[in-house]
Amino acid sequence: MSIEQSSPNQAAKPRVAIVFGGRSSEHGVSVVTAASVLRSIDRSKYEVLPIGITHEGRWALVGDEPSRMAITDGRMPDVDQVAESAEGQVALPLAPGSREVVWSEPGAAPKVLGEVDVVLPLLHGPWGEDGTLQGLLELSGVPYVGSGVLASAVGMDKEFTKRIIESLGLYAGEYTVVKPREWESEAGREAARGRIAALGLPLFVKPCRAGSSIGITKVKDLADLDAAVEEARRHDPKVIVEKGVEGREIECGVLEFEDGPRASVAAEVLVDGDFEFYDFEAKYIDSSEVRIPADLTAAEQDEIRRQAVEVFEGLGCEGLARVDFFLLPDGRWMVNEVNTMPGFTPISAYPKMWEATGVPYAELIDRLLTAALRRSTGLR
């Protein structure tokens, strides 16, 4: 893409800044998500400005070349692969009233790239999905797709997600949280180990504010606990430990329509027998099966959809979310977690669930952008 101001003809269409990559460990997943969106967005309705955020946090102008943003030989793609410059920076508007995007490069005069009408933030994990980017966009007054600051932050933090789920009267499973300062003293570690042991085995040790199953360890022997906590702490100093459950892993998508949020048909994750659980490799490399629709009774479908919408509204979500459940052997539903910006890769469950519900991929993107353009920023 050339670095120049958009023409009047181009400006007639809403201009979408697709922001992806980012500083989190889910950088590569975000790039794959962006590639899928770039392939499918309706170019007759929208002009597209792809912006990649590098691992170091530089906002880079990138080529509109989704073919270069794919998983190759098991390796995740990177923003640096598609950045148009190794040093140039993109700056979004910093104050309400201006939507001009500016490109600057060392030794050259800044160039105005035109105005942006709406931002589609496809960042996963901290520094993007957690309310940080949403706060920046609120300050600048630029409309964006998805939940606002609070819902994004709460949805990213598994501890507070569970607290709200429990306040709604829904079941969030048994868990404990290991705070950063607690694990840094021997007395604190002993206290944490005691709470964790009381949950019973097996356990899942997770970074509290991460996604894509990165940094998660299934612990079947308490002798392996400390190593699992340290692995989770590599991604987040705050750790959540959940008691393992026997149950079917069921997901449900929520999408905001003009008359309010609705839930999709549910999907069931069927993990390949070579994997202990639905970890990063099973999701993105091995491509374990996701059955859509899930083999549920009509009553079970109705209940999961009801609970998914209740969680969506309880957290104050907007636009979209994926709510993950376990259907336990006794028939209870356990709400596992909420993703306020679920994956949009070609194998992601969220767009597939909506396609099975009657909203194909391109229409799904259009609905999200239309809703964002209709909604104001600020208190609402």
What does this structure look like?
With 380 residues, this protein is α+β, with helices and mostly antiparallel strands. It folds into three domains: 137 residues, Rossmann fold (3-Layer(aba) Sandwich); 136 residues, ATP-grasp fold, B domain (D-amino Acid Aminotransferase, Chain A, domain 1, 2-Layer Sandwich); 69 residues, Dna Ligase, domain 1 (2-Layer Sandwich). The protein is built from 13 helices and 16 strands. The strands form four sheets. Strands 14-13-12-15-16 form a five-stranded antiparallel sheet. A four-stranded mixed sheet has the order 3-2-1-7. The protein has a four-stranded antiparallel sheet with strand order 8-11-9-10. Helix 2 links the parallel strand 1 and strand 2. The N terminus is likely disordered.
